[in-house]
Amino acid sequence: MSKKNKYNLILYIVLFIISVIALSVLIKFDNILRCPCRFVAQSEWTLVQNEPDKILSIIRNNDSKIIQHFNMMHINRPDYIDFNFNNDILQKGVITQGETVAKIYSYEDNIRLSGLQGQLKQAKGDLQILLTGEKPAIREKALQALNVAKAELSAYSPQVERIKNLYSQKLVSDRELEIVESTFEVYKLNVSLAEAKLKSVESGSKEADIAKMKTVIADYENQINILQKKLQAQEIIAPFSGILSESILDNNILIGLNKIDTIIVQILVREHQLKYVEKNLPVNVYFNSVRSRVDTSRIYSIGKKAEIIYQMPMYIVQAKISNQDFSILPGMTGAVKIKTGKIDFYRMIKSEWENYLHR
To answer: What does DSSP assign to residue 276?
Structure first.
């Protein structure tokens, strides 16, 4: 080969290398992460009896991975209760929001409610007597009592004078005189009490009695309102629409409900892949159990703590997809492709090499 030809060959090789380098820098490629995923319900509601006298109602929101709602029903130990599920719901396995899932009947609470309602009725009756102008009758009764007391005092006065005269003549003992005078004082006291009673009726103390009775009625009504709210809470209502979950292996779980009209896609991301993942990146979701179905979504949550899955540390990245036909069930698995953006040829080779090393 001539010297000129060698020079041209070297030149061509250099130009080719420069072109490849230039193309690798200028041309961008789509970087796609391929990851396994699992599907979980958007929300999970469980009714748990972890102790004989306690029933817990728990709603876990898998959107935010927090307990959204917590409620505890504490049953009094001396109480006798009935706990009955709605068999129609259990048979069909699908529950609509607002449906009655189960009912608790507390004998003690219902007896207490009946007693409070009776006391409230009596208090309202007493208030009505005070408000309907019965004061003349009350005054008449007080006046009669005063007249009787005065008549008794008047009738006994001669007896006192007679005993005093006999005592001055040494015809009765000191003891007899003391008894007569003590009895006379009692009659005088009865007159004073009757006068005070009549004065009380005529002076308008009725307003104080009315105010007191209204306070008693308000207290009864408040207690009844609180107890009725407690009884309403004993009718267990479905917090959302969904399907019943199986809880055969856990005797503490009375019933479970999964909200699956929206499904949470939990994407399992390896540690070396996490640096490429950001919120709002587009995701294609592929199903292993539902053929020819592909959904699109976007990442809305990135886990900050690794979990050991498949004996490897994985980070949970979440997306949402619609599931109005309930065709996807919690626990199903699939795969996703996360579009992380454009990268050059060098970074693409580096990414593929990382994937190879972490297989």
So the answer is: G
pLDDT in tens, 22-65: 555 555 656 788 889 999 999 998 888 777 777 788 888 888 77
At residue 85, the 3 state secondary structure works out as strand
Strand spans (E) along the chain: 29-51, 54-61, 66-74, 81-85, 94-95, 100-106, 235-237, 242-244, 253-270, 282-287, 294-298, 301-302, 307-309, 312-322, 333-343
Cβ neighbours around 346 below 10 Å, total? 11
What's 314's DSSP letter? E
CB 62 within 8 A of CB 40: yes
Model pTM score: 0.58
Tens digit of each residue's pLDDT (9 = 90 or more) over 225-244:
888 887 877 778 888 888 88
Whether 253 and 46 have beta carbons less than 8 Å apart is answered as: yes
Q: Are strands 29-51 and 333-343 parallel, antiparallel or unpaired?
A: antiparallel
CATH topology for the 29-72+249-343 domain: Elongation Factor Tu (Ef-tu); domain 3 (2.40.30)
Q: What is the tally of helices (H) and strands (E) in the chain?
A: 7, 15
